[in-house]
Specification:
The protein is α+β, with helices and mostly antiparallel strands. The chain is built from 2 helices and 2 strands, in the order ββαα. A two-stranded antiparallel ribbon has the order 1-2. β1 and β2 form a beta hairpin. The radius of gyration is 16 Å and the shape is elongated. It starts with 24 loop residues before the first strand and ends with a helix.
């Protein structure tokens, strides 16, 4: 029997100010596994910020906002991996 140690869940320090309180995330099924994804509204904001970053017109506040969205994306990816791994381990 193998022992599995779960990684500690990372802490988020801040959420982007532009993150809507309702409708920020959507839940999808991927191969029968629930996956958390950013909503179309959030994705559009990120696309806008990335465009401004590429043309050099990103303000310091927008840079911080983009950093917070990146941190949130990493957090959601972590949660999605945890769910997928937990489900995979229960099917062994």
């Amino acid at each position: 029997m193998s022992s599995h140690s779960l990684s500690p869940v990372p802490m988020l320090q801040h959420l982007p100010a532009s993150l809507p309180l309702d409708g920020a995330l959507r839940l999808e099924l991927q191969d029968g596994v629930p996956v958390l994804r950013a909503s179309a509204t959030v994705q559009q904001r990120i696309t806008t910020l990335l465009g401004k970053h590429q043309d050099g017109s990103l303000s310091p506040d927008e840079t911080a906002e983009l950093d917070q969205y990146e941190e949130l994306d990493e957090y959601l990816s972590f949660l999605n991996r945890m769910v997928r791994n937990m489900l995979a381990n229960t099917q062994v």
